[in-house]
User: What shape does this take?
Amino acid sequence: MIRSLKNPFRLSVADSVIAVALIALSALLCGVLSFFGSGDIHVPLIFVLTVLLVSRLTEGYFYGIFASIAAVFGVNYAFTYPYFAFDFTLSGYPLTFFTMLTVSVITSALTTQIKQQEKLRAETEKEKLRANLLRAVSHDLRTPLTSIVGSSSAILENEGNLTAGQRRALLQEVKDEALWLIRMVENLLSITRMGGEAKIHKQPEVLEELIGSTVHKFRKNYPAAPLCVSIPGEPVFITVDIILIEQVLMNLLENAVIHGKNLTRIELSANVKVRNVIFTVENDGSPIDLLILPRLFAGDSFGAGKMAETGSRRNMGIGLSVCASIVKAHGGDIAAENMASGGVSFRFSLPLEEMMPYAS
Amino acid sequence: MPPKDRILIVEDENSISHFMSMALTSNDYDVIVARTGAEANGMITSQCPDLILLDLGLPDMDGLSIIKTVREWSQLPIVVVSARMYERDKVTALDMGADDYITKPFGPSELLARIRAAIRRARINGARPDVVLMGKYQVADLVIDYDKHQVSVSGVNVRLTQNEYKIVSLLGRYAGKVITYDYILKEIWGPGSKGGNQILRVNMANIRRKIEKKPAEPEYIFTEAGVGYRLREEE
Assistant: This one.
């Protein structure tokens, strides 16, 4: 359910400035026009326009109504005979007042309605995204959980009949699936870290330390992965949430290991280009399906959709959409492509901090 | 046969304390388990463990308060078990006197390595509490010579500035342990040092260029993201 605007007669500084400025502007315009002696026919028209603009540009009903009253009195006082005096006996006076008031109320109502619709649309969009994510996550969780329950039950229920090799294979399955679940949860936690109160916790970090600690962790988990690393020779400072950017790099590296077929080389590099640091994770494995490529970071190329049925197994969907949100939250861009020379390239950019004034 | 080392596991999740005590028992440790902070405080005084494995999220109290209580009277090694996202908690725990942390999820081999290292460090430091560092620290090709105030790699003397040497020797004194940025800043630049930890980062970048072959793939000084630095320890 959408909250209606808090209060249709709410006041705000910005809106007050807009209203007063517009009224003053039109009064000035009328003054200038009558100075050049072009009569006073245009005066009510200009003020109707003013009332309309004020109602459209401000929130709620207050400023529109305020503008119409100000306009009626202002026109009466300044721009109709007798000049600079009030005269409420003029014929048609109630009509002018009524017209302006109506314009104001209708415009304000329309404005309010448009704003509410926009809000509603945004809210629905968000709700849809959340539902999609939830559906995808639940779908992705079910498979490994089924496998874990199945494998462990098989061990428990067939204790006597399994060979050591079979038991080991089942246990390995349990471990692999559990590790996959952990990666998934880490990614989901990254999303919650970015949302809500905590926000991202950016700090100046040294590029080589970020890369170094990621590589250290990656090598611990995948000692056999053919990874080479290249970074600039100079120390480079970037302002990032190091835990989140580590997650991005880790996701990209793990993707290469898990999804890259026939790969003999993974290359992680970081380069400074103009005012950005460009991170690249390339591998020489088989290319990404062209059907998936455009939607890789959207977070919907997985789970509930057709993808799940094509047997591509659970995939990188969540990991990559998390990468995209993290990079975006840092003011950067992320992209993936199949390289002409063969292989796959993921790259993202992060804006570079000013070099520090401190020199050792 | 020497007496077994006794490990106190403070953990409220049964499944986790179960797997940890299995791994430890089968590696010749004597294991006791506390499920609450109150229970833990009782066991620490009555059972004299050689090391505490402490999960910070306890049902009845903040795990940090246990570190505080213990550090009031003992240097008993404490290894904190923590989740990845809570690097603030890790930093606080280390600054309050925890010896090390292990990040969930972890396997038994990592757990055992951390426990062995923490106990060993406690024994060494316990034997010479707060004495001026003497002799040498060596790991792989890196040698810190505390007497000559020199650091060398593969026998070649590395020319460090005074602050750079101080940082390396500080890490050497606690080799294997994560030293938080704040702690290093306080030790090297004094408690009043201002301006964040960038000065430390710059010094560390310089040190890295002098002692490591590849700065992004260090062999000796490792970065623990968001927490601090750790000097490699002899395995």
Notes: Chain A touches chain B at residues 179, 182, 186, 189, 193, 203-206, 208-216, 229-231, 235, 237, 242-243, 246, 356, 358-360 (CB under 8 Å). The CA atoms of residues 278 and 349 of chain A lie 4 Å apart. Strands of chain A lie at 203-206, 227-230, 237-240, 266-273, 276-283, 333-338, 344-351. Confidence is low (pLDDT under 50) at residues 1-5, 301-313 of chain A.
